[in-house]
C-alpha cells in the first residue's frame, strides 16, 4: 500500500535553492535533516525534496494544484522573476495549466480546475477540509 510520496529536485547551490523554494512556496521548509537537503510537505504525505547536487536535465514538470493560477503566476513573476509562464487550456481537459523552470532547469508548474465545484470536492477529499 502506498501512503506517501516524495519527489526530488536538485540544485547546484543549496543556500540559493532553499531561498528560491522558500519564496516559491511562500514559507520555510518543513524539515532540514542534514546539510545539503531541505523538504516541504506540500499536502499531507506529499513532499518535495530540494537536494544539493547536479540538476537532472529536463526533469519534471512537477505541477501543483492551486485555486488561482493567474494569481500564483503574477506572484512568482514578481517575486522570482519567472518570465516563461504561459497558461494553457483545452476544452476537453478539466484544468488549465502552466509550466516553467527553476533557475537549475527543473520543470515546475501549476494547474487549476476549471469547474470550481469539482475543485472544492477534490480539496475536500484530499485534505478532509471544505474550503
Summarize the structure.
The protein has 131 residues and is α/β, with parallel strands linked by helices. 27% of the residues lie in helices and 31% in strands.
What do these coordinates show?
The protein is 27% helix and 31% strand. The protein is an alpha/beta fold. The protein has one domain (5-127): 2,3-Dihydroxybiphenyl 1,2-Dioxygenase, domain 1. A hairpin with a 2-residue loop joins β2 and β3. The model has no long low-confidence stretch (mean pLDDT 94). The two termini are 29 Å apart. The protein is globular, with a radius of gyration of 15 Å.
Question: Could you list some keywords that capture this structure?
Answer:
3-stranded mixed beta sheet; 2,3-Dihydroxybiphenyl 1,2-Dioxygenase, domain 1; 131 residues; alpha/beta; 3 helices; 31% strand
**For the record, what is the CATH homologous superfamily label?**
2,3-Dihydroxybiphenyl 1,2-Dioxygenase, domain 1
General shape = globular
What about the largest sheet?
A: 4 strands, mixed
Number of domains: 1
Unreliable runs? none
Rg, please? 15 Å
Query: Ends: how far apart?
Result: 29 Å
Query: CATH first level: which class?
Result: Alpha Beta
Strand order of the largest sheet: 4-7-6-5
Could you report the average pLDDT, rounded to the nearest whole number?
Answer: 94
SS elements, strand count: 7
What percentage of the residues does DSSP assign to strands (E)?
25-35%
Amino acid at each position: 500500500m502506498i501512503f506517501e510520496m516524495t519527489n526530488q529536485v536538485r540544485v547546484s547551490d543549496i543556500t540559493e535553492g532553499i531561498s528560491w523554494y522558500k519564496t516559491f512556496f511562500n514559507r520555510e521548509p518543513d524539515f532540514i535533516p542534514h546539510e545539503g537537503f531541505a523538504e516541504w510537505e506540500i499536502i499531507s504525505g506529499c513532499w518535495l525534496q530540494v537536494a544539493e547536487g547536479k540538476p537532472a536535465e529536463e526533469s519534471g514538470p512537477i505541477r501543483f494544484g492551486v485555486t488561482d493560477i493567474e494569481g500564483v503566476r503574477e506572484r512568482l513573476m514578481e517575486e522570482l522573476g519567472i518570465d516563461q509562464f504561459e497558461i494553457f487550456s483545452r476544452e476537453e481537459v478539466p484544468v488549465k495549466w502552466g509550466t516553467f523552470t527553476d533557475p537549475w532547469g527543473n520543470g515546475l508548474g501549476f494547474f487549476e480546475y476549471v469547474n470550481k465545484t469539482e475543485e472544492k470536492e477534490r480539496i475536500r477529499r484530499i485534505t478532509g477540509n471544505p474550503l
